[in-house]
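[Automated response] Your request has been received and processed.

Submitted sequence:
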Amino acid sequence: MNELKWTDVLDIAIELDEAHPDVDPRTIRFTDLHAWVMALENFNDDPEHSNEKILEAIQMNWIEEREG
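Generated structure:
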């Protein structure tokens, strides 16, 4: 699989949904979300390149992914 960057919000959301099936993405704190993205096996990007807008986009995609 290709390396993920902060701009790959949908792919990151899918990976997070698979990695954390028991988590409700609507209740996650952005600090936790940031740490979980950084911990993804195929994620490789500068931790400083994220911001609230990107984290919010990941969260929204994760919610949509979960709700199908």
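Summary generated for your ticket: The mean pLDDT is 96. Residues 8 and 58 are 9 Å apart (CA to CA).
If you did not submit this request, please reply to this message.
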